[in-house]
Amino acid sequence: MKTVLVVDDFASIRKAIVDTLKRHGFNTVEATDGKDALDTLRSSEATIDLVLSDYNMPVMNGFQLLQAVKSDDELKHYPVVLLTSEKANDKKMMAKKAGLDAWVEKPYKIDNLINLLNYTIEKSKKNDSV
């Protein structure tokens, strides 16, 4: 079973995403912001397959989390998907340059999100085995 680290500062949004992912066969781990997510990635006993993060959060936002993950040799193999209401093209381009795997704008279609997550995890596993 695939495990997704869900990162969002709003508990209600985190819960909605977690519930959706669980209904579609994913395990989930939760973090309240980018710093919490980094701590979780570094210490987690669970095997995390993908980081699904909001962009706009206090303490450490999704872009800062992405930069921290992709610049850390121990963490850079984690695929990162930003799920956000942020629409600025310059932010999308910066995230892509920093190593982002996918950018999903809210509102989103659940089936599209699930397919994207599955595809991104599978692509990441193939790249790891090369």
UniProtKB/TrEMBL annotation:
List, alphabetically, the PROSITE patterns matched. Answer: RESPONSE_REGULATORY (PS50110)
One Pfam family assigned to this protein is Response_reg
Q: Name one GO biological process term.
A: phosphorelay signal transduction system
PTM 4-aspartylphosphate: list the residues: D54
Output the InterPro entries linked to this UniProt entry. Answer: Bact_response_regulator, CheY-like_superfamily, Sig_transdc_resp-reg_receiver
UniProt entry keywords in alphabetical sequence: Phosphoprotein
**Keyword flag Isomerase:** no
The record places domain Response regulatory at 3-121
Listed name of the protein: Response regulator
Origin species, per record, is: Fulvivirga marina
Key word Phosphoprotein present:
yes
